[in-house]
Amino acid sequence: MHDTARGIVELARPGNCVAAAVLTGTGAFVAGIDAAVGPTAVAMVVTAVAVAAGNAINDYFDREIDAINRPDRPIPRGAVSPRGALAVSAGWFALAVALAALLPPLSIVIAAVNLVALVTYTTVFKGTPGLGNVLVSYLVGSTFLFGGAAVGRPTAVVVLALLAGLSTFVREVIKDVEDIAGDRKEGLSTLPIAIGERRALWLAAVALGVAVAVSPVPYLTGTFGRIYLVGVAAADAVMLFACYESFDDPATAQRRFKYGTFLATVAFVAGRAVVLV
Ligand SMILES: CC(C)=CCC/C(C)=C/CC/C(C)=C/CC/C(C)=C/COC[C@H](O)COP(=O)(O)O
Ligand SMILES: CC(C)=CCC/C(C)=C/CC/C(C)=C/CC/C(C)=C/COP(=O)(O)OP(=O)(O)O
Ligand SMILES: [Mg+2]
Questions:
Q1: Which residues cross the membrane (predicted)?
Q2: pTM for this one?
């Protein structure tokens, strides 16, 4: 029983759930959390539960592949049965739907689109070159819009959504380069397999260049205070270095890149806080 409970928690990948919920909360905070603390809290829980549901159904559909490449995952190691994982995912999806119904109309629309995307990601989008990366990027970017919509001001965080989406695309491509051997063995057609590793990494570098060029905009529009520039410059530097590093060592680069995105999230919060105090 102990390993089953641990397995169910692992299916959710709680670190991703918390990180995504923080992004939703950041979106609400930047947009104007004073307007609606309750809906913000609900939106953060919906985000966390939706990510848990999406990760669990991903493991269900990936169970044969993971048995070869990730035997330590809960289903291949026998901690949770495939049917059990599907039931847990369905329960989390149902909970996300029930809670999303408490939110404003636009939030409900975003949640509905995202939940369908999460159910179809693995079976429809993941194996199509670049499409899976674009969908995950949209999902991460949408957390800011979801938080902004919860407080009735989604347009206030469109730039943040774009930055999060672009940077997620970059990291997903680097992760696909890291996983290229296993993905090729599984017969997956990821972007690096379809167009080549270096071309895929150059495409990611261009996307990062756009994100870095756009990153001062929240300061220039007055949304964030000057401290944001210091924080986002550090985050940009980490992500740019990770992107350069990815051509030689994608495994280290994608982990370093993730720290850069966390640094950027802190810069968003600090940048807004100094304007509000
Ligand atoms: C240029 C600039 C200022 C960019 C903004 C960067 C920003 C705030 C990005 C947000 C990225 C973030 C913190 C995402 C966490 C939420 C999440 C669940 C991401 C999706 O991850 C999917 C990935 O495949 C999971 O893999 P792993 O992390 O290895 O478990
Ligand atoms: C705002 C709302 C309602 C939802 C947002 C949902 C979010 C932010 C999702 C983020 C992306 C995410 C974590 C999706 C889950 C599915 C996924 C991409 C799993 C990873 O799948 P693989 O590509 O198989 O990689 P692994 O090797 O890690 O399994
Ligand atoms: Mg998987």
A1: 92-119, 131-150, 156-174, 200-221, 227-247, 259-276
A2: 0.95
CATH of the domain at 60: 1.10.357.140
Q: Is 89 in the pocket of ligand 2 (CB under 6 A)?
A: no
CB-ligand 2 contact for 121 (6 Å cutoff): yes
Residues within 5 A (CB) of ion ligand 3: 58, 62
Residue with CA at minimum distance from ligand 1 atom 12: 261
Mutate to test the pocket of ligand 2, among 11, 22, 26, 51 (most ligand atoms within 8 A of CB): 51
pLDDT (0 to 100) of residue 188: 85
Helix axes 105-120 and 37-61, enclosed angle (nearest 10): 10
Domain count, the chain: 1
And the tokens for 91? 């329960």
- The amino acid that residue 244 corresponds to is Y
For residue 271, the enclosing domain spans: 2-276
pLDDT tens per residue, range 130-163: 999 999 999 999 999 999 999 999 999 999 999 9
